[in-house]
């Protein structure tokens, strides 16, 4: 049997086949459009879309996925205790002691601290282990074979722009070649070897356009909801239960989470996403100013939502303070009554039993 590392090298080599295929198709499309058809009127627009498409594709492929920092690794003494301990209950107690200083709000389906035995790190919120990359990836969305890379916090914006510009590229080619494609079938196109390129340019552009359009629409929907592909199929579990909208802050803020605050850079494949990838604002601990005030009524709160108070009543760690805003903090008393003021300065009293 071949050594494991040889098989691993073979797998990594084969993983580049889809990327090489896309690169060859793009190179051929450039040759067919610029050299064979030579449509001078459209070349300026064509080159702009081509450059942005290649730029965003390159960034998606070669941007290394972000991984958990050393802050999420177990200290040496706790790690030794964890490895020696056989009982899952005791292992969870060890993880809980370490996790008290970390900005963690999500749990496993059973309510336990999320820990990766392979990477030996406590998983930050929205972090998952990728078996293809063999690493834990911050805010992992999915592993894409067409870019031979994990799509996550560090390159999700690049991936969205890659879909955007590839769709624009295919649409532009299909639209500008359509008239020559019609002439081909009506025998009005002069006999030349360019007829082959006209035929296949249209078919390839139309085929990729249809497939990309569905994926592009789906990911735009995910961005608007502030969900990853994984979270769309399996809702994140918070301390008081699963909530598929737990990270949704309102449409405009959800967009800013991926593209940033400066709209000037939204269409450029440069990193502008908000946050550090380790902690994320969540509607469970942050009041959304875009939400109507009636959602703060007891009947409008989702089951398992954590209460928010206007004044801090319990000390928070530095990492938790990074996640929470300056205006709102969690109260972790057994039972508290919070008074929130609406825009009309009317006092609304909400009684919620928090996690014990």
TrEMBL record:
UniProt-listed InterPro entries: Palmitoyltrfase_DHHC, PFA4/ZDH16/20/ERF2-like
Keyword Membrane recorded: yes
Transmembrane segments: 12-33, 39-58, 158-182, 194-218
A single MF term (Gene Ontology): protein-cysteine S-palmitoyltransferase activity
Enzyme class name: transferase
Taxonomic source organism: Cyprinus carpio
Top-rank lineage group of the source organism: Eukaryota
GO cellular-component term (any): membrane
Family: Belongs to the DHHC palmitoyltransferase family.
Reactions catalysed, as given in the entry: L-cysteinyl-[protein] + hexadecanoyl-CoA = S-hexadecanoyl-L-cysteinyl-[protein] + CoA
Main location: membrane
UniProt keyword terms in alphabetical order: Acyltransferase, Membrane, Transferase, Transmembrane, Transmembrane helix
Subcellular location: Membrane
Protein name: Palmitoyltransferase
Recorded domain comment: The DHHC domain is required for palmitoyltransferase activity.
Low complexity composition bias: residue spans: 347-356
Composition skew (Basic and acidic residues), residue ranges: 334-344
PROSITE patterns tied to this protein: DHHC
Domain Palmitoyltransferase DHHC: 114-233
The keyword Acyltransferase is annotated on this UniProt entry: yes
Annotated region described as Disordered, given as residue ranges: 334-356
Membrane-protein topology: Multi-pass membrane protein
């Amino acid at each position: 049997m071949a050594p494991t590392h040889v098989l691993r090298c073979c797998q990594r080599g084969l993983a580049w086949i889809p990327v090489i295929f896309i690169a060859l198709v793009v190179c051929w499309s450039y040759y067919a459009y610029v050299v064979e058809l030579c449509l001078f009127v459209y070349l300026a627009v064509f080159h702009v879309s081509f450059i942005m498409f290649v730029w965003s594709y390159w960034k998606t492929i070669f941007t290394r996925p972000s991984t958990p920092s050393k802050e999420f690794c177990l200290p040496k003494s706790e790690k030794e205790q964890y490895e020696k301990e056989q009982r899952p209950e005791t292992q969870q107690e060890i993880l809980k002691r370490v996790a008290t200083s970390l900005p963690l709000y999500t749990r496993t389906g059973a309510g336990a601290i999320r820990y990766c035995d392979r990477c030996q790190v406590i998983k930050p919120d929205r972090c998952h282990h990728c078996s293809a990359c063999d690493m834990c990836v911050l805010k992992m969305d999915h592993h894409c074979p067409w870019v031979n890379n994990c799509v996550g916090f560090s390159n999700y914006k690049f991936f969205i722009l890659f879909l955007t510009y590839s769709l624009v590229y295919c649409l532009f080619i299909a639209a500008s070649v359509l008239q020559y494609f019609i002439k081909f079938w009506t025998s009005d196109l002069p006999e030349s070897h360019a007829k082959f390129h006209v035929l296949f340019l249209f078919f390839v552009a139309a085929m990729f356009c249809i497939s990309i359009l569905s994926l592009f629409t789906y990911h735009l929907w995910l961005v608007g909801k502030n969900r990853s592909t994984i979270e769309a199929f399996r809702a994140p579990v918070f301390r008081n239960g699963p909530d598929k909208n737990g990270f949704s802050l309102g449409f405009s803020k959800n967009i800013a989470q991926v593209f940033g605050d400066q709209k000037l850079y939204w269409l450029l494949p440069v990193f502008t996403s908000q946050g550090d990838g380790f902690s994320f604002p969540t509607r469970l601990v942050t009041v959304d100013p875009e939400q109507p005030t009636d959602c703060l009524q007891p009947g409008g709160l989702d089951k398992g939502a954590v209460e928010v108070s206007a004044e801090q009543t319990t000390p928070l760690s530095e990492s938790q303070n990074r996640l929470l805003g300056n205006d709102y903090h969690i109260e972790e008393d057994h039972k508290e009554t919070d008074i929130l003021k609406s825009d009309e300065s009317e006092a609304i009293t909400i009684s919620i039993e928090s996690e014990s």
